[in-house]
Amino acid sequence: MKTFKFKTNINCGGCVSGVTPFLNQLENTDWKVDTENPDKILTVESESVSEEEIIRMVKKAGFEIEMI
Q1: Which domain of life, per UniProt (predicted)?
Q2: Looking at residue 3, what is its pLDDT?
Q3: Is 0.85 topped by the overall pTM?
């Protein structure tokens, strides 16, 4: 399983709710956002998804994202 970490601007529960439908479209993927961290770290664990797919989905949801 690969683990990806990204810096985002997903900073509250409402933001997490907004990005959830997009990230849930990624098959065989577990993800979480640490909204307590100043960099709002999104951690994604997956066997089959690429970092490009994750970035595309988060941007599609209207949030900023960059690989750490």
Answers
A1: Bacteria
A2: 97
A3: yes
